Amino acid sequence: MTEPSQAIDISKFKPETVYTIYIAASPERVWEALTSAEFSRRYFYGFAVEADLRAGGAFIVRAPDGSEHISGEVIVCEPRHRLTITWDVNWPGLVEALGRTLVTYEIEAAGEAVRLTMTEAHERPLSDDILSGGRQGWPTILSSLKSLLETGKPLAVKTSPPARMLAALKALGVALPG
């Protein structure tokens, strides 16, 4: 177990979205899925998690092309129980416009299953339009993770880009990719 990183005051971050799902898997298996590139590529649509699992360690999510899509820091690391990380999308001006994001995964045994709770919190209040992107994306990612662990196959969910979020970011002057 590692203690929270002192670089960030996580008490400032307020939960905006909380998701809870139950997965027929062990805490060890869920932890591995959340923290390994091999697993994450399969349920996270080709995105690969790379984590130095200690407080202060680097947290990176690489896009399918190998670019660094998310950069962050491990804040709390309690293997098989809790992982809190900063989650900063690497779009020019995004963090400056919106502040930092904190993602926490909590893994709890629930009989022969695991209750996985994921919380996305933000450094400052954000509009529903901005939050709509995560609210659209996280359920498909977590459902795909559940499917992969329970059946061996991720979900093949077709989603469209989060139009409300992208329009709100553009209105704030954030340069959108591609």
Uncertain spans, ≥5 residues at pLDDT below 50?
A: none
Helical stretch count?
5
Series of secondary-structure elements, N-terminal to C-terminal: EHHEEEEEHEEHH
Distance between the termini: 40 Å
Structural class: alpha+beta
What share of residues is helical? 25-40%
Question: Tell me, what's the shape?
Answer: globular
Number of strands: 8
The profile of the biggest β sheet is: 8 strands, antiparallel
Provide the β-strand percentage band: 25-35%
What would the average pLDDT be, to the nearest integer?
91
- How big is the Rg? 16 Å
Describe this structure in words.
This protein has 178 residues and is of the alpha+beta class. Helices cover 30% and strands 32% of the residues. Strand 4 and strand 5 form a beta hairpin. Helix 4 runs antiparallel to helix 5. The longest helix has 24 residues. The mean pLDDT is 91.
Secondary-structure map:
Layout: E1 14-23, H1 27-35, H2 37-43, E2 48-51, E3 58-62, E4 68-78, E5 82-86, E6 88-89, H3 94-98, E7 101-110, E8 113-122, H4 128-151, H5 163-171
Antiparallel strand pairs: 1-8, 2-3, 3-4, 4-5, 4-6, 5-7, 7-8
Helix pairs in contact: 1-2, 4-5
Short description:
By secondary structure, this protein is an alpha+beta fold. The chain has helices spanning 27-35, 37-43, 94-98, 128-151, 163-171, and strands spanning 14-23, 48-51, 58-62, 68-78, 82-86, 88-89, 101-110, 113-122.
